[in-house]
Write a structure and sequence with these properties.
Helices cover 0% and strands 50% of the residues. By secondary structure, the chain is mainly beta.
Length: 118
């Protein structure tokens, strides 16, 4: 497992943008598949986006045209660029990591709050 630290959350108006960052400890970052999940009040945690060690990306339908996931292996950092934010994007966003061969994500960050409101 790796230790993950998130940053970049905050309050933004509808239609605005935020960029979340997730920095991982260790020297094997490039071998991990990384993902963003989110959990809104009263709801279960849901998948947002992922990026594999090879750079293959996947997105939830609800964010596919608005969010972009990326990674910088030299900095051990993953990003989530969020544009055209909606109130329904309000949630705690979590960074997650897993080895390529693993089924489940085994490492999680502490979460960062994103609030979209006028």
């Amino acid at each position: 497992q790796v230790q993950l630290v998130e940053s970049g959350g905050g309050l933004v108006q509808p239609g605005g943008s935020l960029r979340l960052s997730c920095t991982a400890s260790g020297s094997a970052f490039s071998l991990y598949t990384m993902a963003w999940y989110r959990q809104a009040p009263g709801k279960q945690r849901e998948f947002v986006a992922s990026i594999s060690s090879a750079g293959t990306t996947n997105y939830a339908v609800s964010v596919k045209d608005r969010f972009t996931i990326s990674r910088d292996n030299a900095k051990n950092t993953m990003y989530l660029q969020m544009n055209s934010l909606k109130p329904e994007d309000t949630a705690v966003y979590y960074c997650a990591a897993k080895r390529t061969i693993s089924i489940a994500y085994g490492s999680w960050g502490q979460g960062t709050q994103v609030t979209v409101s006028s």
